[in-house]
Each structure stands twice: as structure tokens, then as C-alpha cells.
Give the backbone structure.
Amino acid sequence: MKTIRWIWVYVSKARWAIGLSMLVLVLGQSAQIMAQGSQKFLIDDVLVGKHYDKLKWVLLYFTLTYLTSYVLNWWGRYLTRMNGLCLHKHMGSSLMSVIQRTPVSSIQSGRTAKWVQYFTSDIQQVSTFVTDELPRGIQQLGGTLLLIAIIGWNSPVVLGIVTVFSVLYIAIGRYFAPIMRKQVREMQEKRGELLTKIEEGISSTREVIAFNRMAWEEKSFRGTFAIFFDRVMQNGKLANSQLLLSNSVQWIGRMAVLVFGGYSVIKGNVSIGAFVIVYQYSNQLFTNYQTVFNFAMNMSGQLAYSDRVKELFEQEKIGEGTRELRAPVKSIEFESVTFAYPGTERHVLNDLDLSLPTGRKLAIVGASGGGKSTITQLLLRFFEPSSGCIRINGIPLSDIRMTDWMGKLSVVFQEPFLLPDTIRNNLMLGRVGITDEQMIDACRSAQIHDFIESLEQGYDTVVGERGYTLSGGQRQRVAIARAMMGDPELMIMDEATSALDMETEQKLQENLDKRRAGKTTIVIAHRLSTIRNADLILVMHQGRLVEQGTHEELMAKDEAYRRLVSTMSENGAGSIGA
Ligand SMILES: Nc1ncnc2c1ncn2[C@@H]1O[C@H](COP(=O)(O)OP(=O)(O)OP(=O)(O)O)[C@@H](O)[C@H]1O
């Protein structure tokens, strides 16, 4: 019931269009039944009654009713198709915004293929059900009622026979419906797992070949496929058993109608014409009952699809925040922030108090796993603190309107994601109001313009899936240029230059420092060269801030920071804390 109420929220927006399609289909089916009825007049009045002058009226009646049914059925099908596509589009865009508000933890824990399945299969099933199968179900129901009325009027006994056998048919359907629903749900889950397996297989091709694990991969795929196959077969067996039982019941019913009808004609109780159409209508009624109950059974399966989509739509979402943030960012404060990743116990940040001065270059350093990137994730609101509060200009971050906050910052991750698209589109990411000059200027600052220009198609060169046609360092520089474009108030660089050689990095840093003067840049890095000239260096250790100051101040202190730097000097690797 809850699922139906949930679907109604979407359906109600298109209720007039869906209602119209139902009406048109019901009228179409009624016209079809009326057209069939012309046989009675043809047999009884024209052929048996020898009133040949009535032939033209019978033909006119048949032509009009048949043409009406043809036009209405065509229009009904057109409407259902159009409504289906509209609802699919509407649900798809709602799902997209649900995904964008879903905590990153849920996205990361579910596989990409699972999300693809929601879009391609589940949502399509739900919208087809609502806009196509449901109107057709109603159409069949309307036709069924009309047939019941006509048959009941002509021969209540025949109606009784058809109804008794159909009740038996219903009983079989009802028995199988819940088992079918459970099986369809399981089958859907296994299909999702199979898609995930295929996606994993394709993504890991490089590693699988490099480690000669082809046989292992194949075995694992076969295992997953076997489970899916098993569920499909189980479902097929169940559907067959149900079909066998219900078909037998129907055939016995048809024979009973034929015997009774023939007997009535011999006895002279009904005309031949009435017998012919009552027999035809009762056969049709059997089929209609079948369609209506198939629809009822299918509805259970369809509700399973809707259940899955509904669960997704109703899962936890990141609060959008309602407070405006138009003023420049003057303060970023972490107040006793404690954080553990969802599903884990360990506190990655422990009662962290942090005050990040704005308008300056800040560096966060510390041993690997100390919680540096976690700070970025919290600032991006990928996760919410387990306790404590992050405040921007004194306002809790969770209260600030997401679009206001995200409009003020940009971020570069260590492994940036590039779309399989042109370099230009990867840089622009759909943003408007950025000119080509600004784009090129950012690329110059990121030390990537000359490389892009050296490519045959320059900025219109298409990079492969995830940007595989570029090196790691080139990808990082494209991502840095992308973040610099539009000169955001706050820029976060999380290990953003780790793949660059020293010389390129140094030039890039100089450009970045010039470009970002007076703006807030947070740099998370292990390389001394990247952080040395920061206005403030924050040293993290096991989720706490243990030291802060400039490079010189911290070196003079001879504590955690100096120890990190000395490790670097000793191993000569040029990086600290890694
Ligand atoms: N999605 C996640 N789920 C569970 N634990 C995580 C997740 N991401 C990070 N962690 C854990 O949180 C801890 C802090 O990770 P974080 O990435 O913040 O460290 P870091 O200081 O940036 O490390 P590095 O310098 O190696 O990048 C690590 O122990 C890591 O294993």
C-alpha cells in the first residue's frame, strides 16, 4: 500500500494524461466488442431471417464500430507510449538528484552497475507499468465488465460456467502471486550482482591480464552467472506450472460452454447468431479474465521493482541546508569534530578543534592515514561529522545552502576523474560564463597549455575513458586548471601534484601562489616543496591537530613537524609523512 501511495506521488502529476489514455483504451476495446456483435445481426437477420436489405446497415454498423475501435486503440497506444517516456524522464531526473544528495558512503558502498540498473531497468519497469500496463489492465477490466453484461443478458448459464472456471483460474493465480513476487525480486537482485560482476570484470581488465588471472576471473563470472541462471530457471519453472494448471481449467470451461450452447440451439432456446457471438464472447471473456489476472500477478512483480526504487528514493539524504551564504568566507572552524566513517568504529578525527584562517595558503601535513583527506571530505559535505560542528562564518556548515557553499569552493583530488570527452569539456564541466581566454589562462598557470596545444586537435582532443590517454601528471594538471578557472574563494588541493616532476611542480606552485594571492588555498601534501612556503602549516596526527605555524616556526620547535621533515631528509624521498 505504501508503495502504491509512493507511486501515486509521481503518477498524480500526469494523472490527466494517464486517465485519458485509460479512457481511450476502454472505449477502443468496447468499440471492438460492439463490432464483433455485428455477426449476430448478419447470421440471424440477414442470413437466417433472409432480410437481405438489412445487409447494408449491418455493414455500416460494422465499419463504423471497427474504424472507431481502430482509431481509439491506435491513439491509446500512442498516449501510453508518450506517457511512459515522460514518466521515465521525470523519474530519471528525480533519481539523479537523489543520487547527488545521497551520502558518498552509500554511493561508494554500492557498485556503479547497481545504479545503472536503477536507471535502465527498474525505473523503466515502474514507468512502463504505470503508464502502459496499468491502462491496459483497466482496458481489459472495462472490456471484461462489458462482456459479462452482454453474456449475462443472453445466457446467464454460460456466464455462470465461465465465471466458475474463471474463479478456479483466479485461485491458481492468487496462490502463485506471492511466490512469483518473491522470485522476481530475487531475480532482480541477482541480475544486479551479475551486472556488477561484468562492470568489475571490464574495469579490472588491466590487472587481470597483468597478473595472469584470466581463468580466475572467468570462474568468478561463471559462478555469478550460474546463480542468476538458477533464479531465472526457478522462475520459469514456477511460471510453467502455473500456466499448465490454468490452461487446463480454461479448456474444460470452453468445452462446457460449447456443449451447453449447442444443446440450447438444438432445443431452440437461442438463435444460431446469439450462440455464435455468446461463444465468441465467452472465449474472449476467458482470455480477458486471464489478462486481468495475469495483470494482477504481474502487478506483484512490478511492485517488487517499485519497492526497490522507492527504497532508493527514501534512503538517507544529505540535508540541503537553508541558510544563505552570500558574504565572503571569513572563517572556517572545526569545533570538537569527531568522525568515524559509516560502518566503522574507529574515530578518524578525534575531538578536532581547528581554525582555518582565510585569504591565505594553508597546508595540512601528517603521517599517512592521519585524517587529512577526511577534512576535505567533511568540507565537501560528502560526510557529516559524528559529533561536533564545522562552522563557516559562524554558521553550521550543515545549515548552509549546499549550492551557496559549493559555489565558493573547488577541489582537486589526487586521482582526478576525467570524462571520456574533449579536454575543453573536461575543463568547463558545463559551467557557463567562463571565456576561452580564462580557460587558456588557467591552463597556462597549471603548466598544461603547451601540452594541450601540441595535440593535433588541441582543446578539442578527446581523452579516453577516465582520461586514460593522458599521463597521471597531465590528468592532475588538467584537474588543477579546472579548479583554478573561475578563481574560487576556497580551493582545496588534496595531493593534487603528487604525480608531477619537481621542476613542473615548482613552476606550477609559483603560478598558483601568484594567482591565489589573497584567496584561501588548502594544500594537503607530503612533499616539502609543496608546503614549505605556506602561510600556515597544520600538522595532523591520528585525527588531532598537534602543531601549527610556519615552516620556520615549526622547524624551530623541534617537535612533530621537524620529525616528519627529518624522515624525508633521511630517506631522501623528498616527501614527508608518506
Ligand atoms: N571511505 C572510508 N571508509 C572507511 N575508512 C576510511 C575511508 N576513507 C579513509 N578511511 C580511513 O580513515 C583514515 C584517515 O584517512 P585519510 O584519507 O583522511 O588519511 P590521510 O591523512 O589523508 O592519508 P594519506 O596521507 O595517506 O592520504 C585512514 O585510516 C583510512 O583507512
